[in-house]
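Rather than argue in generalities, we have chosen a single entry, letters for residues, whole numbers for local backbone shapes, without further comment.
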Amino acid sequence: MKSALFVVDLQKDFCDGGVLPAKNTLSLIAPLNEAIEFCVRRAIICVFTRDWHPPNHCSFRSQGGPWPIHCVQGTIGAEFAHDLHFPPASLVIDIEKDQDVKNMSYSAFENTHLETELRRLCVNSLAVCGIATDYCVKATVLDALRCGFQVAVLSDLIRPINVNANDDIVALGEMKTGGAEIMTASTWMGWIRDSE
């Protein structure tokens, strides 16, 4: 198995102090950086995705959508979270999603070249973390499974929006039912070590 660490939408607008923050994101950066460093030492590919909306995107309330204006192309809110560590550029795939003004998608696989790029790199196993458990993480995981990838969801490195109180629990259940393994980052890293 060739693995990749998949970091979903860890952007300023989705973090504490942003316009659409997930829960408790300040506690996410340090352990996520540890996982990234673990991958760098083993030349495991790191994939960073981000929302990259035009100013009049259909997901915004001003356009009749469900969300406040967020992650607009070129704005501070669309930038990756402060202190998030990036490995050397050769190990980073930057997938910018939801650029079509009329398309609202949560999955990093929808209307991007992601699957093709992962196939080119011979990746067949993904460890997914990031924001938000109940939206973009869930949609990306379910699409990855439909594409035939083996998927682990790193339960301690994801954070929910939780519009409803238990949305994250429901999302984890859907991902598990879909075929994902739910595990902690330390369990995943131990599995990688054991397979070396």
Summary: The helical segments are 29-41, 114-120, 133-146, 167-178, 185-195. DSSP finds five helices and six strands in the chain.
